[in-house]
Design brief:
- This protein is mainly alpha-helical and 153 residues long.
- Helices cover 65% and strands 7% of the residues.
- The chain contains 5 helices and 2 strands; from the N terminus they run H-H-H-E-E-H-H.
- A two-stranded antiparallel ribbon has the order 1-2.
- A hairpin with a 5-residue loop joins strand 1 and strand 2.
- Helix 1 packs antiparallel against helix 3, helix 1 packs parallel to helix 4 and helix 2 packs parallel to helix 3.
- It is globular, with a radius of gyration of 16 Å.
- 26% of the residues are buried.
């Protein structure tokens, strides 16, 4: 499997895991977890924009979203990334883009690097959500990659 195929698979998993978290938060309303989820999804959206050179200076990554808004944003993000990844081959992943961070720092990264960052960032924050749910005595969803593979393959 080449890199682009693997990234497509990981983005499908990312969407699956995000949807599982959203479903869990609809039944176990945890404000702290929902705020982390909103941050995760807003960051996915903003990194998509960064791929096209969007300036993020001053951007607020910690906006409050309702559960419904999180669901809408998750669908939008999944569709945008899926369409983007369909357009690329492995060589396209090495294209570079420049953007300014929320702190105003100019950066240059490849699409491969930014796409990988989105996945790692989302994974870290889903782990935080799972921990918060457990702390609040909710049963978190199982979102392990291996479970995704077992259920979808």
């Amino acid at each position: 499997m080449n890199s682009i195929e693997y990234l497509r698979e990981l983005y499908a998993y990312n969407d699956w895991a995000n949807r599982r978290i959203i479903t869990a938060l609809k039944s176990d309303d945890s404000e702290k977890s929902r705020r982390i989820l909103a941050h995760l999804l807003i960051t996915e959206q903003e990194y998509y924009e960064r791929l096209y050179g969007k300036d993020s200076f001053g951007f607020d990554f910690w906006q409050d979203l309702s559960s419904e808004q999180c669901g809408d944003l998750a669908r939008e993000n999944a569709e945008r990334y899926e369409k983007l990844l369909r357009k690329f081959d492995d060589e396209g992943l090495d294209l570079k883009t420049s953007y300014r961070t929320s702190e105003g720092v100019w950066c240059e990264n490849t699409f491969r690097e930014l796409l990988t960052q989105v996945l790692f960032h989302s994974s870290i924050h889903r782990g935080s959500i799972i921990l918060k749910l457990r702390e609040e005595n909710f049963t978190p969803p199982k979102i392990d990659y291996i479970i995704y593979l077992r259920e979808t393959k």
